[in-house]
Amino acid sequence: MTSPIAKAESSSRQSGPPLRYRVGIRLLTPLLFAWVVVIAWRQARPRKDAKRFVLHRLGYHTIVDSSLQRRRWIHAASVGEVLTALPLIQAVHPEGLLVTTATATGAAVLAQHAPDVAHCYLPVDRRAAVARFLAAAKPRCGWIVETEIWPWLFAIARQQGLPLSIVNARLSERTLQGAQRGLAPVYAQALRGVRVLARSDVDAERYRSLARSSSINATTIGDLKQVPALDAHTAAAPLDRPYMLAASTHDDEETQLATAWLKREATGLLVIAPRHPERGDRLAHTLSSLTGHRIRRRSRGESASSADKIYLADTLGELNLWYAHAQAVFVGGSLIPRGGHNLMEPARAARAIVTGMHTENFTETVIALGNAKALQQVVSADAAVQWLLSLDDAERGERGARAHRVAMADSDVLQRYLDALGVDS
Questions:
Q1: Are residues 70 and 161 in the same domain?
Q2: Domain membership flag for residue 232
Q3: Statement to judge: residues 9 and 112 lie in one domain
Q4: Neighbouring-strand partners of residue 141
């Protein structure tokens, strides 16, 4: 009997990725394996999930229960993609769904919000690893969230007749230009037969350009980030002090913001919620050196004292809670060239929002909020802090209400995705 790996090998000459990709992956294999081990040590080990992480990323899955097979399969790479896909995940019966992530932090957020959904880690994009995964899982269809294009995964799925759709498909101009410098033929072949359900007309056109074909099945459905998670609820405030929130921040942004905040000698509290909470220890040390005293942290169950000016919210899955009770919000990944982060989350919470200028991953959202005068963009941390402190209660309320109207404008987007994917609501 021919094994799934042998079948994949025998047909790869006809329908596998181009030679340049196969050679590149082979050459990079030692680095890929080293990267898997490093991420397992940093992310999965603290969650006691390192062994499973390594085995799954290398394609060794132990899905022996046949009831776990023939499920719908969603791949959401990390925290941002999991949060984007949550409304879709929660709209599908958990017994009929398998979710894969590429990171342990993504798995942790999934477990927090959808604990009944089966999960495993997606293997690295090597032929044998992908073939082992698909042989173990036997999914009936695959929904890939946003911008995850893996040539071997897509090629073997196509060989096996597994229908793939990219949901909430987004593609930044920067990513498109980078791909066109050498990998365009690889992506063009990978996207053959893949259905693209795009968040915007611009993203749909970029996928057509990437696939080098105007006939690619790319349809604009809308932005899933505008859909609140189905388990959203009102909870008590995480702190008993009013606070401003700096959310989804990256390395160096926190230092810039904290320095600007302390320089103004404001009496208020700035809560910093880093994009990657596992940076908490190092970040707390950096912030403590700026403030001159130990920074209190959410991960340790500490609250902010009346004298604290900086507080560290270094936990997973609580960002919407912090948004819900903030006076105003700065959204990070935007003072440095990271492309920004989801602005619709604070908009749904009716918060006044400020962000930096590096928001190319969310151009349409920035335009929509900007046109409604619900978003302020600034060039520096000093300007962001000045803006946050300049708002009075009335201005915060007015801006938050405008942001909320924008976020709630497209209430049918989830149903359109369910219809497009053939899911009965």
A1: yes
A2: no
A3: yes
A4: 72
Could you tell me where the DSSP H helices lie in 66-162?
Answer: 79-91, 104-113, 127-137, 151-159
Same domain, 171 and 295: no
3-state helix, strand, coil in the chain (%, to 5): 50, 15, 35
Bridge partners for 165 per DSSP: 143, 195
Report the amino acid identity of residue 39: I
The domain of 345 spans 244-407
- Number of structural domains in the chain: 2
Q: Are residues 252 and 218 in the same domain?
A: no
pTM of this prediction?
A: 0.83
User: Are 308 and 271 members of one domain?
Assistant: yes
Residue 230 belongs to some domain of the structure: no
pLDDT tens per residue across all 425 residues of the chain: 555 555 545 444 456 899 989 999 999 999 989 999 999 998 888 889 999 999 999 999 876 566 667 789 999 999 999 999 999 998 888 778 999 999 999 999 999 889 999 999 999 999 999 999 999 999 999 999 998 999 999 999 999 999 999 999 999 888 888 777 778 889 889 999 999 999 999 999 999 988 877 678 899 999 998 887 654 445 789 999 999 999 999 999 999 999 999 998 778 999 999 999 989 999 999 999 999 999 999 999 999 999 999 999 999 889 999 999 999 999 999 999 999 999 999 999 999 999 999 999 898 899 999 999 999 999 999 999 999 999 999 999 999 999 999 998 887 999 999 999 998 75
| 354 bridge partner residues | 330, 376
In a domain, residue 184? The reply is yes
For residues 61 and 133, is the Cβ–Cβ distance under 8 A?
Answer: yes
